[in-house]
User: Which sequence fits this backbone?
């Protein structure tokens, strides 16, 4: 699979959870990729692993949007964790 196709898959996963009302709760980055844990109001969670640079940039933009769009009003910013 090409890098672009991989990016499209990863982008679609991010968009799927955000559209379902999930928010990014926990982010862990390493040299090989980024693990993003999503959660919703019912405490359901899902985890995805991003490997492409473009997907990692895309998730970063979505995280900034999440914080700017007052989604964090529903989720206190102290519930969003970066790292372990």
Assistant:
């Amino acid at each position: 699979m090409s890098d672009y196709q991989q990016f499209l898959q990863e982008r679609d996963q991010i968009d799927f959870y955000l559209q379902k009302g999930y928010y990014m709760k926990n982010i862990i980055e390493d040299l090989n990729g980024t693990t993003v844990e999503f959660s919703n109001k019912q405490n359901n969670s899902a985890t995805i692993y991003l490997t492409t640079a473009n997907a990692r940039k895309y998730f970063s933009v979505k995280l900034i949007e999440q914080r700017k769009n007052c989604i964090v009003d529903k989720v206190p910013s102290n519930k969003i964790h970066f790292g372990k």
Q: What stands out?
A: The two ends are 31 Å apart (CA to CA). The mean pLDDT is 87. The chain has one domain: 3-82. The first helix runs from residue 3 to 19.
